Hints:
Helices cover 81% and strands 0% of the residues. It is mostly helical and 89 residues long. The protein has a domain at 28-84. The longest helix has 28 residues, at 12-39.
Amino acid sequence: MNKKAQRFSISDLGTIAIALVVAAVILGMGGTILEKIQGTQTTNGTAYNSTGFGLTGLSTMAEFIPTIAIVAVAAIVIGIILVFFGRPR
């Protein structure tokens, strides 16, 4: 495998930021839609409970977005540091 293809750069931060924003928007829109649908359903019915589980799942996924962002930025920073200190002088 080509070593250059595995390296991270500062320009990768923009792509990761856009991906995280898109993920947050999708989670937000999904939560809004499920909440609106759940409001029209019979309480404690199967559909009501299913949308409730969906809302819980979306909430859980949304809680991980900051962690994913920190890990992604840390991976890029570590990659840049390794490239900087790993090059011959």
